[in-house]
Write a structure and sequence with these properties.
With 331 residues, this protein is mainly beta. Helix content is 14%, strand content 38%. It has 4 helices and 24 strands.
């Protein structure tokens, strides 16, 4: 994982500087991609400001406060996040790494690539794009799907705009703060649903407000022996797993495979992606496999019965760096 993060950071440093040919009269505007609380529990999956007005020749620079990418379809279809080679799933290099020149007239695919996986590197990641033709351009984060989209409205040169770059940045910060506040309220009310020996844990997100909760429960979940716990995806943005490591280290989600003369292939770890199939918790490694976002194809729930007394910790390896783990106490 560290090697992948270093490579992505190096590619970004080489390719994502200020775009060429920016004139003296052009302006640079800032959009923030995402946002996160200090404890990593609430994650914003939106761009701020969500709609930005600029003029021809201006540059937009995206600053990253989360694991996102910026992708303009350019009149075509956006590439998928994951590609298959036989039975192996890989992160699509057309999403993971930068694509296209840093000027945009509404045609051709443009992609920022992804920031380093380590959250400490997100704030250093930048992507800049200069707009050369009037139009309304929608872009998305392929990592989090069409629910995470933004709009750049490019006006002819000389158009008087209602906000300066500084005022637009401040508006974006207010929008981001409102999203985070809504997520924190949702986190404060996060509780499992208990019905006899059945407990349902909801993995929450909100497409309209733009947040995801990176926690299973707010406190250890205490259950009686024989209880079945069901985890249910109610998040339109994220994928998660329920992974009991069984005394092992939490497995990495991505396994870089070095290639000569190019970036590594990014294999999605089968140990994380594929379910282990148990219906009752047992010693050793137990894994749900990928739980898909609401509205996406795939598995959305996972159930496990607990018959043995004890304290059991589980993780989402995809978001382990954000502290996404849970504890179940069986009595």
């Amino acid at each position: 994982m560290v090697r992948w993060a270093l490579l992505l950071a190096s590619v970004a440093a080489l390719t994502l500087g200020a775009p060429p040919g920016v004139g003296a009269q052009s302006r640079t505007w800032t959009v923030t991609a995402g946002g996160i609380t200090p404890d990593g529990a609430v994650w914003s999956n939106a761009f701020y400001p969500r709609v930005l007005d600029i003029t021809v020749g201006d540059t937009v620079q995206w600053r990253f406060e989360g694991f996102h990418n910026v992708a303009f379809a350019g009149g075509g279809a956006l590439p998928p996040l994951v590609v298959m080679e036989g039975r192996s799933a890989y992160m699509n290099p057309q999403v993971a790494f930068p694509v296209g020149p840093q000027v945009y007239d509404g045609s051709g695919y443009r992609n920022s690539g992804m920031p380093p996986e380590d959250p400490k590197g997100w704030s250093q990641f930048r992507y800049a794009l200069r707009f050369t033709k009037p139009g309304v351009y929608t872009y998305s984060c392929i990592v989090h799907g069409p629910a995470m989209s933004g709009t750049i409205r490019v006006h002819p040169q000389g158009t008087e705009l209602s906000q300066t770059p500084g005022a637009a940045l401040e508006r974006g910060r207010r929008e981001q703060q409102a999203t985070i506040a809504a997520g924190m309220r949702a986190m404060a009310g996060l509780r499992p649903t208990v019905s006899g020996r059945t407990v349902r844990v909801s993995l929450l997100g909100d497409a309209q407000r733009g947040y995801s909760l990176m926690r299973y429960t707010r406190a250890p979940l205490v259950v009686r022996r024989g209880t079945t716990v069901t985890w249910e995806m109610r998040d339109p943005f994220e994928i998660h797993t329920v992974t009991f490591a069984g005394g092992e280290s939490v497995p990495p989600f991505v396994l870089p495979q070095p290639q000569s003369g190019g970036p590594p292939k990014l294999l999605l770890n089968p140990k994380v992606v594929v379910p282990t199939g148990q219906r009752a918790h047992q010693p050793g490694y137990v894994n749900s496999g990928i739980l898909a976002p609401v509205g996406a194809p795939g598995v959305h729930t996972y159930s496990l019965r607990f018959d043995r007394a004890g304290t059991y910790t589980y993780w989402c390896p995809i978001h382990a760096a954000l502290g996404m783990k849970g504890t179940i106490v069986v009595r």
